[in-house]
Amino acid sequence: MAAELAPVPTLDSGQRAVGDRLPWPAVVGRALPFTAGAVAFAVYLASLAPTIGYLDSPELSAAAITLGVPHPTGYPLFIALGHTWTLVSGAVLDADPAWRLNLLNALFASLAIGFVAASGRRLSGRASGGWLAAGCLAYSATFWSQATLVEVYALHLAFAAALVHTWLRFDECAAAGGDPRRFVRTLAVLTGFSLTNHMMTVLVLPVLAVSLLRYRQSFWSLREIASLGVLGLAPLGLYAGLAALAASDPIVNWGNPERIEGLWFHVSGGQYRHNLGQAEGGLLAALLGWPAHAGRELSWWLLALAPIGAWRVGGLRALALALGFVVALVFGLTWGVVDREPFLLNAHLIVALWIGVGAVFVRDGVEARAGRLPGAGVEVALWLAPIVAATVGFAASDRHRDYEAHDHAVAALAALPENAVLITQGPKGYAPVYAQIVEGLRTDVAVVDMYLNVRNSYGPELDRLRSSRLPQGLTRELAVTETVAALDGGSRSLWLMPRVPDNPWHRLGLTRLQGGLVDALVESPPALHAAAPDRAPLADFQGGPQLLGVSTRSHAVESGTAVVVDYTWRVRDVQALGEAPIVTTVLADSSGASPAGRDGMPLLEQRRPFAYGRSPSSLEPDQVVHESVALLVPRAVEPGAWWLWVSVRDGEDWMELPDGRLFARGAALEVTPRTTPLWTLPARQGRSARSADPAASESEAFVR
């Protein structure tokens, strides 16, 4: 193993140039962390999401804004910082609170990049090595995605990078015979606070342990150990705040950790322990597949420099980083969750540092063998590589127009009849909860998240709504059904978001609206085939109703607002209808091509039961049915001329038109650019909650 690199001289220990000016390399080195962080922040700001996204973003945003308890481990530091930030930033920024939290997340990510740049410089001996290491991590797809949307991983990486940088300074100080106790105390404090944000901090401890054990004689005393224990454990008192928050009965109250046993289960991540060791295809297959993932994240040609850097670091530093990398990699690959990629970020941080060291070693080798000019060329390439990575990856990571999750939530709520029950589940399920809690939309609707209830007996929600008389035989897996059963004795209409399983809702005396997905956006319809729009009737669906007309209350609509659509149907053979058919309305162009979201699915695809879910037996032959439904046009839809296409489905079978086509082209719709504010203040006391959003208030007048 190569000899350990000498530490980078501190700015006050090197030789001064004439006039007491710092040498140019020292100036660059001192400015490097701030420059790398500032450039990364500018990139993140340009690609920042304007509001909530999917997965944990709506839940964490709502919890931070309202001081709630999010999913395990509760992340009390993130919640405290996020809530304080919303209060402070709200005084100076008239902007969507979710955007302001996204901005805070970008600051956390930029702070992490600054520390990575500083650590890379110390390990490689050159500012270009730190710049490259920082750029590798900053503009990798996963880290970039965590920097532009509310999540806890940006703050975690800021702590992890700060711990690594402090560890390097401790190691340099101890190796030089200095007093490293101030660095050990800093490590204790950083570790304690970091553990109050994310338990992945444990994966960084092996890196610290190697040097700490080697130089333990420098600080190893009973008094010092006691002080370190106090410094490290005191921040963990923030977790006690979760119990206090739960006792206040907030709306976001995952697991209700009000009591000691519940708090420990929540803080220790007991709900997720079964995910550990769940490597897809086995650990060996996961390890063999990781280089391909890392190559996509960090670029193949740079990844090839990592082994060189790992060797070049040398000494106990190399052992410490290698140990930390192996622990972090095995954990990330065997953590069996849907969003596994962020759990590999600890490993990617170390790989990025290795890349910086390896690149400088290659640069110095080229200069030694080929001369200063080729060496300077490699140096320029090291400085340009992150800029190229940011430029190439910007389009894929740009979220500044990504309103899809918020529009999905508002559209779902706007499409519901009054006092409905909306059952949600999965990565798209929590957005409607955010829209209710933060923006005050459709507070008449009871939003029940099945994932929360089934997985951990959601606590307050079940306690408030539990019925004393439930159908026999309900298992704990159907705990959410208890909630629904208690809502006005089961008299409220039930609606399901996509991916909610077919539980036996009928056992509660509730009518499951077959296919009652209020705003799909997750299932692609069959290819749209044109039917002549001037036919009379407009569309004669085989075995179903006749569509006599489709019109909009206004020919033009701003993106991100609602348009009221009027449908006129004629019921023919009531018996042929079977169960209540499902009407699907899709926004597409004149040829049937639908604008797609980030997941490749239609941006506007609304599904609802025919005649508001009325039983076909309540309809008369030749009866004319008029329906008015509000459709929210997502802000991601480009302005221009579009059409509303309509189809009918009975159960799993699509009702064809006489010529075999499935969709009839209905009304034309002109989508215009948004001119009204992108965000409105949530409902205040004395102000109707339903009037907080003009789109929602308009739709409620027609959806009954």
Could you walk me through the main structural features you see in this protein, from its secondary elements to its overall organization?
It is built from 24 helices and 13 strands. By secondary structure, the protein is of the alpha+beta class. The strands form 3 sheets. Strands 6, 8, 9, 11, 12 and 13 form a 6-stranded mixed sheet that branches. Strand 1, helix 20 and strand 2 form a beta-alpha-beta unit. Helix 2 runs parallel beside helix 20, helix 13 packs across helix 16 and helix 15 crosses helix 16. The protein is elongated, with a radius of gyration of 29 Å.
Report the strand count: 13
Q: Fraction of residues in helices?
A: 40-55%
Give the overall shape, derived from the CA principal axes. elongated
Average pLDDT, rounded to a whole number, is 76
Characteristic terms for this protein:
single chain; 11% strand; disordered C terminus; 4-stranded antiparallel beta sheet; 704 residues; 6-stranded mixed beta sheet; 24 helices; alpha+beta
How do the helices and strands line up, and which of them pair or pack?
Elements: H1 24-46, H2 57-66, H3 76-90, H4 97-124, H5 127-138, H6 141-147, H7 153-175, H8 181-195, H9 205-214, H10 222-233, H11 240-247, H12 260-267, H13 283-298, H14 300-303, H15 306-313, H16 315-334, H17 345-370, H18 372-397, H19 404-414, E1 421-424, H20 431-439, E2 446-449, H21 450-456, H22 460-465, H23 479-486, E3 494-496, E4 539-540, E5 546-552, E6 556-558, E7 562-570, E8 582-588, E9 605-609, E10 624-632, E11 640-650, E12 653-654, E13 664-672, H24 694-700
Parallel strand pairs: 1-2, 1-3, 6-13
Antiparallel strand pairs: 4-5, 5-7, 7-10, 8-9, 8-11, 11-12, 11-13
Helix pairs in contact: 1-4, 1-5, 2-3, 2-20, 3-4, 4-5, 4-6, 4-7, 4-17, 5-17, 5-18, 7-8, 7-9, 8-10, 9-16, 13-16, 15-16, 15-17, 16-17, 17-18, 19-20, 19-24
